[in-house]
Amino acid sequence: MSARSQRGTPPEELAGLERRIVACRRCPRLVEWREQVAREKRAAFRDEEYWGKPLPGFGDLAARVYVLGLAPAAHGGNRTGRVFTGDRSADWLFASMHRTGFANQPNSDNVDDGLRLDSAFVTAAVRCAPPANKPLPSERDNCLPYARAELTLLEGVRAIVCLGGFAWDAACRVLEVERPRPRFGHGAEHALPDGRTILGCYHPSQQNTFTGRLTEEMIDAVFARARELGGRARA
Q: Considering the entire predicted model, what is its pTM?
């Protein structure tokens, strides 16, 4: 079974997509940065082996909700080998997904921590950790086909939760939303002609959570709405 997907053996198309993502070297700046971080490490993780490669998404292959972040954290996903794993943003995201019935536990620490998602699939618009957490437009565009391919394979998705304005813009591009595109905002919704809905949520970064710009109640409200749109998570 794929290390990043669950619920039985994934279709060969998804396994092939994961292999292509992990092997990607299309953005020289991102390749150099992610590998430099993996070599030099943070002192707290000096004894760990960093992943240092691009990250595919992970979750339930029968997902009704697709969660799109910005990019892996340098010492989070780039270290652990799973997006939104091993950092403070992960703590906030999965605590909320646990409270709203999408995750079996509130923490995402490492790939062997037992985390399982129900009716949800989590990924990022850019698959490599970027310097200063700021991907270039060209790097975003190089990665967008991966999200498009995931959404094509995850046929049951009805709600796309975008964590931050960068992810919102990326989703609009992937889903070919016509201009003028809807503006991002926390709790913003945009219904697509095919019945899917894009939902906006402030990113669970420390900048937002420490300042109170994003509260537990606010993020829970978005995932509760996503659950309504996507259908109830299975018991």
A: 0.93
